From TrEMBL:
SUPFAM superfamilies: ClpP/crotonase
Family listed: Belongs to the enoyl-CoA hydratase/isomerase family.
InterPro entries: ClpP/crotonase-like_dom_sf, Enoyl-CoA_hyd/isom_CS, Enoyl-CoA_hydra/iso, Enoyl-CoA_hydra_C
Name used for this protein in its record: Enoyl-CoA hydratase/isomerase family protein
Keyword Cell inner membrane annotated: no
Keyword Lyase (UniProt): yes
Keywords assigned by UniProt, alphabetized: Lyase
Length: 255
């Protein structure tokens, strides 16, 4: 386990993303590890709920920009990184995100992909991909449009500005906001309450609720990722990601 630290608290599996020096930027290997850990927890009968968390400063600051900065649209298509993300939706047990600090880009999408979200007061949620000349690729446009409606989703996605935990709470993206130091404990506590419930009923309820949200989510995700790959053909995406790494303001030119 290069990027995760994992322990059990009674029936609750706690998976912590521990790439703190890069604010838990989600490189391909990290996401593979995370998804494998989720699937392992899903098959172990003594585990009844799963908590996914990050560090104090960042739940996850998004996809690893360094890993994408020089990639072409074809590289991205061949990388097929979202195949791993799709497997998150296949996890049957309750998955609770305990979000402290930044949940940006892919980090926000990871939180949205979890079933429940406990946010600390310091949490910041956002989809800043537009500032890199990109757009979300791991479900952000689909989840936000479904959950917030068109206007609020577009504002978040177009401006790329983060929102606070309280704002995310008001929008219905998180279940509760708690003090920073209580965040993981609160998520584990919720996991323990769920662990007392009948697992098969929980599983069927999850399946039904996702079906209710999923008129054609798979189609939407497919469309989103093709658009995401397409943006790697733009100069603006190159400029946006390079500017981030060079710590300067990007100059976008519309091509
Ligand atoms: C690679 C990252 C990173 C990222 C931070 N780092 N986020 N590296 N990819 N997404 C690195 C920085 O380069 C830096 O490395 C170190 O982590 C600490 O970050 P700082 O920027 O110095 O911290 P701070 O000034 O506190 O700013 C925090 C921040 C900022 C506001 C969260 O790091 C930021 O804006 N990050 C990028 C957020 C983003 O655009 N995410 C979307 C990515 S695209 P060094 O070596 O300098 O110390 C995306 C597409 C989704 O997610 C596709 C699906 C997966």
């Amino acid at each position: 386990m290069a990027y995760l630290s994992i322990h059990d608290d009674g029936p609750v599996r706690v998976i912590r993303i521990a790439r703190d020096e890069r604010l838990n930027a989600l490189n391909l290997a990290l996401v593979d590890e995370l998804v494998a850990a989720l699937e392992a927890a899903d098959t172990e009968t003594q585990v009844r709920a799963i908590v996914v968390t990050g560090g104090d400063k960042a739940f996850a600051a998004g996809a690893d920009i360094a890993e994408m900065a020089d990639a072409t649209a074809v590289d991205m298509k061949l990388r097929d990184q979202f195949r791993a993300w799709d497997r998150i939706r296949g996890v049957h047990k309750p998955v609770i995100a305990a979000v402290r600090g930044f949940a940006l880009g892919g980090g926000c999408e990871l939180a949205l992909a979890c079933d429940l979200v406990i946010a600390s007061e310091s949490a910041k949620f956002g989809q800043p991909e537009v500032k890199l000349g990109l757009m979300p690729g791991a479900g952000g446009t689909q989840w936000l449009a479904r959950r917030l409606g068109k206007a609020r989703a577009l504002e978040l996605l177009w401006l790329g500005e983060p929102i606070t935990a309280q704002e995310a709470m008001a929008l219905g993206l998180v279940n509760r906001v708690v003090p920073d130091e209580a965040c993981v404990a609160e998520a584990v506590e919720l996991g323990k309450r769920l662990a007392e419930m009948p697992p098969v009923a929980l599983r069927c309820i999850k399946e039904a609720v996702y079906q209710a949200m999923d008129t054609a989510l798979a189609d939407g995700l497919e469309a989103e990722r093709n658009l995401f790959y397409l943006l790697f053909a733009t100069e603006d995406a190159r400029e946006g990601m390079r500017a981030f790494m060079e710590r300067r303001t990007p100059a976008f030119r519309g091509r």
